[in-house]
Specification:
Layout (H helix, E strand, L loop, with lengths): L23 E9 L12 H14 L3 E10 L9 H11 L5 E4 L2 H4 L3 H15 L2 E4 L4 E2 L7 H33 L12 E3 L7 E3 L1 H15 L4 H10 L5 H7 L16 H9 L7 E3 L2 E4 L4 E5 L6 E3 L9 H21 L15 E3 L6 E9 L5 E9 L14 E2 H30 L5 H31 L5 H36 L4 H6 L10 H7 E8 L2 E6 L2 H13 L15 E2 L1
Parallel strand pairs: 1-2, 1-3, 3-4, 12-16, 17-18
Antiparallel strand pairs: 4-5, 6-7, 8-11, 9-10, 13-14, 14-15, 16-17
Length: 578
């Protein structure tokens, strides 16, 4: 180790205070899938939190901000409630470090894991720690660690597919034994504690089921039945499950009230005749096949597997009314405008209460014989709105006019960025090579500075430096080392951006590539790039895009290249996108 001579040494005369170690605002993240829950020898949420919290408590550079738990969430993707909350905290600047027990608790998706560890987290300045894997993105200096983490992630991905195959085989075997395979017993039933896969009647709920069938058989509408149930204070199925601790949240019904579609599903369900129904949907993670809902003709019905709640005569009468009402509704459309495709289905949510917005339509025939109709959207849960939040139903045309400019602007942004990529590809200068060279040079300088810091103490022990000289020089070198580390971080972020753009592998660009210069909104377009549309009023909507982090990466790139790109602007009513 080189030592420092006192000859010719010029140092300041003021003793500087020691540099303060950075303290990271840390979030503990724990996840447990349904497959692991209750399995002998399986991990638990409690053990994960205990391990990670203990680790954080022992680290002086980590300060616990909060704990985020996804209990019963699959690791196949990042569509998890607690994870979404955590990402919102990161975007707000309240969290800059994530600690997990091991990589499998973070994700089992190889591609998305690599995206987060190599691109998104470095870009957002987030430190990531996986305790059992011995990985810390802040202190990692070995380039092979990234490869090791990627390989572990690939193993987790294969584990997920293998688990999918085993679950599929188990479900198939249970179907052959005519067992009920649902996670929770359907409303009106409870799972037998004696016979596995057997349903038994829950008489407290079965009374409600019989009343629903009776009222429908007597001609009462779905909405009238809902009003009767809600006014009578009868809790809906999701509220019952939450009260028993069976579910943490239910995205299908955030309102906590009876909805017309629940009545429709109950009346049409052969389960209440004592029959089990299989094959309503199909999915295979092992074969990369997403969930697809099957038509009723493709359902597999096993008869007389459990005790019925209603008899055949009552079930037939109620479903005869269902059929009659459908035929009446269809007859109104004969010779008139056909019901258009609902391009916003499943995408519109109320900005005030986060409930689903449903489409309704109204029609009239004028005295001159001209038929007209219009469609509108309204919140399914308006009674929970405060007085200043109450709003009238919003016409389809109004929402369309608000959303269309936002979507076209986003597509134009992607198109302009694609032009920049093409232009850069034709340049002979490789910007990534230049950045890599600068990162290498800066890293070498940092290593030299660190060596000098280490040699200072030896010089102080050997009395080659006084205490004042030692403290002053150590402060100078540490400040220089800190500046070099910041420079390396900044250059690494720039390099990540260039990799994303120059290779044209940004997921946002891929999603928008097939929808350039649209003349109208289409269902396919919205599903490809929009996660949800929050409707606040007839003047304001907010679009939450899919691939938000990838989109933020592009926006940053655009701002840094403003000399060659001019962002498009919007006019008219207030429009937003996030």
């Amino acid at each position: 180790m080189p030592r420092i001579s006192r000859k010719g040494n010029t140092v300041g005369q003021t003793i500087a205070t020691a540099t303060t170690e950075r303290v990271w605002n840390c979030a503990v993240y724990a996840r447990l899938s349904l497959e692991d829950s209750g399995r002998k020898g399986a991990d638990t949420i409690e053990t994960q939190i205990e391990l990670v919290s203990s680790y954080v408590a022992k680290r002086s550079d980590l300060s616990l901000y909060n704990t985020f738990i996804d209990n019963g969430a699959s690791g196949k993707d990042f569509e998890r409630p607690a994870w979404s909350q955590l990402m919102n905290e990161i975007r707000a600047g309240r969290v800059d470090c994530i600690v997990v027990k091991d990589l499998s608790r973070f994700s089992r998706n190889y591609i998305e894991t690599c995206e987060f560890l190599e691109k998104i987290f470095p870009f957002m300045g987030v430190r990531f720690v996986s305790i059992n894997d011995g990985f810390d993105s802040h202190t990692s200096s070995n380039r092979n660690e990234g490869l090791i983490i990627a390989l572990k992630s690939l193993v987790n991905n294969q584990y997920l597919k293998d688990t999918s195959r085993k679950i599929s085989s188990s479900i198939k075997a249970r179907r052959e034994r005519k067992e009920y395979i649902g996670t929770h017993a359907p409303y009106g039933y409870q799972k037998s504690k004696v016979v596995k896969g057997k349903l038994e009647i829950d008489e407290s709920q079965a009374i409600i089921i019989r009343d629903i069938f009776t009222k429908r058989a007597n001609g009462m509408s779905h909405y009238a039945i809902c009003n009767w149930l809600n006014s009578s204070g009868i809790p809906c199925p999701s509220v019952v499950l939450r009260s028993k601790g069976k579910i943490q949240a239910d995205n299908r019904n955030r309102s906590g009230i009876w909805l017309y579609r629940a009545i429709k599903q109950i009346i049409r369900n052969p389960l209440y005749l004592g029959h089990l129904v299989y094959g309503k949907s199909s999915q295979s993670l092992a074969d990369n096949k997403p969930q697809v809902w099957q038509s009723e003709d493709d359902w597999i019905i096993c008869e007389n597997t459990h005790e019925p709640i209603v008899n055949r005569e009552l079930w037939d009468r109620a479903n005869a009314v269902e059929k009659e009402r459908r035929e009446i509704y269809a007859s109104h459309l004969v010779g008139k405008a056909t019901l258009p495709k609902n391009i916003f289905q499943g995408l519109l949510v109320c900005g005030h209460c986060n409930s689903t917005m449903q489409r309704s339509h109204s029609s009239r025939t004028r005295p001159n014989g001209k038929y007209s109709e219009y469609y509108y959207y309204s919140c399914i849960n308006p009674h929970k709105h405060q007085e200043q939040q109450k709003q009238q139903p919003i016409r389809l045309e109004v929402i369309y006019d608000l959303v269309y400019p936002l979507v076209t602007d986003a597509l134009q942004t992607a198109s302009n960025l694609g032009a920049i990529i093409e232009k850069r590809a034709k340049q002979q200068v490789n910007p990534r090579a230049t950045l890599d060279a600068e990162i290498t040079r800066t890293s070498q300088e940092l290593e030299t500075v660190n060596q000098r810091i280490a040699g200072l103490y030896e010089s102080y022990v050997d009395k080659l430096l006084s205490e004042m000289e030692y403290v002053n020089m150590k402060t100078v070198y540490e400040n220089r080392a800190g500046a070099l580390r910041q420079k390396i971080d900044h250059l690494s972020i720039q390099a990540t951006t260039i990799v994303d753009v120059s290779k044209s592998n940004n997921q946002w660009l891929k999603a928008t590539r097939d929808f350039q210069n649209p003349s109208e909104l289409t269902r396919e377009m919205l599903v490809a790039i929009v996660e949800r549309i929050e409707v606040y009023s007839a003047e304001r909507v907010v679009i939450v895009w899919k691939f938000k982090d990838e989109y933020a990466l592009l926006e940053s790139y655009v701002s840094e290249n403003s000399n060659i790109y001019t962002a498009s602007t919007t006019t008219g009513r207030k429009k937003e996108g996030v």
